[in-house]
Amino acid sequence: MLAIVIPFYKLTFFEKTLNSLANQEDKRFTVYIGDDASPENPTAVLEKYKNDFKFEYKRFKDNLGSVSLVKQWERCIAMTQEEEWIMILGDDDLLDQTVVSEFYKEIEEIKTTSNVVRFASRKIDENGTTTSPIYTHPKTELATDFLFRATRSSLSEFIFHKNKISTVGFKNFPLAWYSDVLAVLEFSDFKTIYSINQAVVSVRISSLSISGGTDNLRPKYKAAFQFYYYLLTQKKANFSKNQIKELLHKSSKTYIYNKKEVALFFKISKIYLRNLFLADYLGFIKAILINYSK
What we know:
The protein has 294 residues and is an alpha/beta fold. It has 2 domains: 2-204, Spore Coat Polysaccharide Biosynthesis Protein SpsA, Chain A; 217-293, no CATH class. The chain contains 11 helices and 9 strands. The chain has helices at 14-22, 43-48, 69-77, 99-111, 143-148, 162-167, 179-187, 217-234, 241-256, 262-274, 278-293; strands spanning 2-8, 29-35, 54-59, 85-88, 94-95, 116-124, 140-142, 158-161, 192-204. The radius of gyration is 20 Å and the shape is globular.
């Protein structure tokens, strides 16, 4: 019923990820590992766990993640079989030993509530040291509330109904930045997210990860703009007037931090003016002028 998909590329923390799967109390899952033409061969490590849980490994001939992480996710997901639910787990993240068992404990309620399941999470560093509190969530929460609530998220802490992945799909933003957040909104039909706080997913933030990298800010800003612009132009009906204003403010910041993308200025301006947010638009112009004077 549950497929755990791992788009593999880096070996550094991979064995720790596998170990967390081997330690699951409930083994009702199959792991699908899609090797993105990595220069690091994981087969020796996988051999250690061949009797601990069921897995399938496939090495792809071409490196797709460097072009599109979303397309790499998609071809890894295509490895799955009859499972109804899918978790996409980073090759450096860890599951507490009760993650799978807690999922099955709640499965009947999940089926009648949401297509999106979220676990509690924590951040860890290169050494596995916890660097954050445990982030917990309301048991059920509107997806729009999730978006505006002051919290963090990563792809690894979610389980999605496979049908939603197949019919809706992931949006292909640069570095897949915000692709997971949009998936939560769209896979839930902008309705309910179901949270399990009794088990924790540890998300590794390191210099090797996209989240921890500092040399990729420009594509992150570009992705952020595309995300907010998509919501404002394609999904506006799901938001209140105040929420639209907040999305616009967030979109505006992506331009202010990336002023070379002049086309973004005109796109943002059009949304401000179309919605008659004139005072807010003047604030946007003022922020640009202040930023230019620095």
